[in-house]
Amino acid sequence: MLLSKLASVIQRLAKFARENRSLPTLGFTHLQPAQLTTVGKRATLWLQDLLMDERAIRRARNDLRFRGVKGTTGTQASFLQLFNGNKEKVKQLDALVTKMAGFEKYYTVTGQTYSRKVDIECLNVLSSLGATVHKVSPLK
Question: Where is the Fumarate lyase N-terminal domain (predicted)?
């Protein structure tokens, strides 16, 4: 959902940058006025950051894996028992449930939960996007 909305913002901002590429404006740096620049140039700097955010969100999404069916301690012992020790069937179940949940990959090793490092990776890309939006926003 975020990627499609971000793509729309990038398209609109690129159009704005083209339309205002020659419109002069006073630059601002370190909380004080600086030399002249253009509105279009400033917009392209924002675009550059948004494109970096888009790339980071895609990477995070593409790297995201599903916990899969591992049981409460991550051993898959209960599933092995259900399938009379057939490890292939347990792997197939893991792959099937992963696909049904909308993921392409699953973690091969987990504990009771997936690693909380996954949450940190997701929050990092979202906070980066938030920093970009804050920088672009006139309401500070």
Answer: 2-78
